[in-house]
Amino acid sequence: MSERTDRYGFEAFDCAPALRLEAHERVAKLQFDGLGKRLDRIEELIERLERRLWLMVYGVVAVILAQAVQPLLLAG
After folding, report:
1. HSE on the CB side for 2, CA within 13 Å?
2. Would you say the pTM of this structure is higher than 0.70?
3. pLDDT tens digits for 40-57?
4. What single string gives the DSSP state of each residue in 4-49?
5. CA 39, 45, 51, 54: dihedral to nearest 10 degrees?
6. Cβ contact 17:25 at 8 Å
């Protein structure tokens, strides 16, 4: 006798709709996993871009401050 039995003593079986549902769930899980990986990658790229942007802002501020201090040094 098979190991898989239903509560009425009949052998359990998988019907086509249940198999299609399981396959669809597996595909959906793979798609969500792939989407999660892509979102993680996008977040990393955004963080890198943000760091570059702040570096550029600090560079512009440094140039402006240097141009403001230069006439004071030349006058003194």
Report:
1. 8
2. no
3. 999 999 999 999 999 999
4. -B-TTSSBP---HHHHHHHHHHHHHHHHHHHHHHHHHHHHHHHHHH
5. -90
6. no
